[in-house]
Amino acid sequence: MGDEQAPGERFLLDCLHLMIATPALRARHLDSQYALQEAIVDALGNDPTDTEAAFRARAATSACLAATHTALTRWTEDNGRTPLPDLITKALTASFGADAVTGHAADAPTERS
């Protein structure tokens, strides 16, 4: 695709630039992240009486969402030059280690010129 971005990528970048620059939107994003975390944990179907399992599920879910947020922020800051999947892989690898992230070359990010 070269230097060109798909219309959806450009729209996402514009939305993320706006979110990063607007405190109220950043706060709303964090609120949405929390709601998403709870929805994921609920969907995992943990035993509500097993508080340790629920804690681990929330911690892992929160770490995944934080890694994704960090990758999206970096992608926005560099105007989409680094492919987003590479940044997500790098963020998840930083959070969970290379052994936990499979199926993508974490050490070989592809830069757009």
In short:
With 113 residues, the protein is an all-alpha fold. It has four helices and no strands. Helix 1 crosses helix 2.
Please tag this protein with its features:
113 residues, mainly alpha, 4 helices, globular
Order of helices and strands: HHHH
Secondary-structure-derived class: mainly alpha
Q: Give the beta-strand count.
A: 0
Poorly predicted sequence stretches spanning 5 or more consecutive residues: none
Distance between the termini: 11 Å
Largest sheet: none
User: What value does the Rg take, in angstroms?
Assistant: 16 Å
Estimated share of beta-strand residues = under 5%
SS field, number of helical segments: 4
Task: Summarize the SSE layout with pairings.
Elements (H helix, E strand, L loop, with lengths): L6 H15 L1 H22 L6 H27 L6 H13 L17
Helix pairs in contact: 1-2, 1-3, 2-3, 3-4
Describe, in plain words, how this protein is organized in 3D.
The chain is mainly alpha-helical. Helices cover 68% and strands 0% of the residues. It contains 4 helices and no strands. It has helices at 7-21, 23-44, 51-77, 84-96. It is globular, with a radius of gyration of 16 Å.
